[in-house]
Amino acid sequence: MNLRQKIEKDITDKVMIKLKSVLVDEDFAIIDDRLAYSSEAMAQKAAKDLGIEGVHEHEYEGKIWYMVGETHELDLYGKCPKGYKKKNGKCVKK
């Protein structure tokens, strides 16, 4: 690996760090690499803006958080979320 490739890899590694779960502030959290909202109304608005039906809940840090989509199987980018795999065209937990 030449110096340029090493620098590109180091930068990519730092930029591409995936956040498993982290509290961003009192309104937002990242849970399983997906944005969660502190209120159902905020998640419903985001879902409507994205043209997606429904929201679902997650408990994190002793609080209920809301995510876009009726289930965690949401597939916005042609891939399943981390910890899920495609089966019969749907994302299912591994």
What does this structure look like?
With 94 residues, the chain is α+β, with helices and mostly antiparallel strands. It has one domain. It is 26% helix and 33% strand. The chain has helices at residues 3-15, 40-50; strands at 21-23, 28-31, 34-37, 55-60, 63-68, 84-87, 90-93. It is extended, with a radius of gyration of 16 Å.
Topology summary:
Blueprint: H1 3-15, E1 21-23, E2 28-31, E3 34-37, H2 40-50, E4 55-60, E5 63-68, E6 84-87, E7 90-93
Antiparallel strand pairs: 1-2, 2-3, 4-5, 6-7
Top keywords for this entry?
two-stranded antiparallel sheet; 94 residues; alpha+beta; three-stranded antiparallel sheet
Offer a quick outline of the entry.
The protein is an alpha+beta fold.
Distance between the termini: 35 Å
How many structural domains are formed by the residues?
1
| Strands ordered across the widest β-sheet | 1-2-3
Number of strands: 7
Shape category: extended
Q: Using the CA coordinates, give the radius of gyration.
A: 16 Å
Order of helices and strands: HEEEHEEEE
Strand content: 25-35%
- Main pleated-sheet profile: 3 strands, antiparallel
The structure class reads alpha+beta
In which range does the helix fraction lie? 25-40%
Q: Taking all residues together, what is the mean pLDDT?
A: 75
Q: Could you name the ranges where pLDDT drops below 50 across 5 or more consecutive residues?
A: 15-19
Number of helices: 2
